[in-house]
Each structure stands twice: as structure tokens, then as C-alpha cells.
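Bumping with the actual sequence this time:
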Amino acid sequence: MKNILTIIAVIITANLFAQSHEIIKHNGEKLEVNFIKAENNLIYYSIPSSTEEQKISKHAVAQLNTKSTNSSKTISKKIQLTQKSDHKKVIILKESETIGLNKSEMITGFIGKVKGQPYYELNKLIENSLQQKAAINGAPFIVLVSKDPENLKAITYTY
């Protein structure tokens, strides 16, 4: 019984002494949070009045400010796409890495497959084609839905 009461007391007091942080997103939104950790392109945090762990994509976050030390850490830089040649800046994400980004639109395409073409070259052409279409639309992130050369599909995401 003592162990259970000790564990409960530790959990309650740990939340009272948690450091307070501020997340500033690329779209200008500010969130008051308790930072937990950053891994796998995600930032884990909790809201100060709750212990529930939440997450957000590191690509959606511009800065993480620590209020207790008045320090600031840049998490990611905003990607600006102005022309088709900026397609190399477009990042291919997994669906789980898009939390906090805004779903934009579905883009489609077609790649002519050459007989005997290695899979890795075809894969690079597919990704390149979809990145170019996303750059034209001004979307800095895509999630590949279909890599079939005759039916390319990706969902674009923006800040």
C-alpha cells in the first residue's frame, strides 16, 4: 500500500514541477506545453493542465521556447517554394509524421516505365515527378499513396 501511495504522490508532484515551454508553429500559432521528448520526426508534449501525451510533427514547429531559462531552440526552417526547380526541397513524409500539418490536395501522375529499368531508378523517377507537381502547387510536403508507375498518387501537406 505504501508503494502505491508513493507512486501516486510522485506522479502528481512531477506534473507540478514540470518545465513550461512554448511551441511556435510555422503558421504563427503558439502552444503552451510541457515538452517531453523529440524523436522520429515528432515532438511529444503535454498540455500543462493534463498528463495526456500528445505529439506534433517537427516539420510543423518553428521554435521551442523554454520559459524557465528564456532560451529558444529552432526545430525546423520553413520551406518556401517559388518555382518548379524547388522540387528538391519537397519532403516525402510518412502519414504518421504529418500531425500538425494541413492536408492540401491529392496529386496524380504517370511515369513511362522502360523495360529492364532498375527498381531504384524507377522509384527515384516516381518521387521526383510527384515532388515537381507538389512544388508547382506550393506544397512543401507529400505522403506517397500509390507508387504504381501508371497511377502515381500523393497527398500534399502545407503549414
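The C-alpha cells above came from a reply further down the thread. Residues 119-137 form the longest helix (19 residues).
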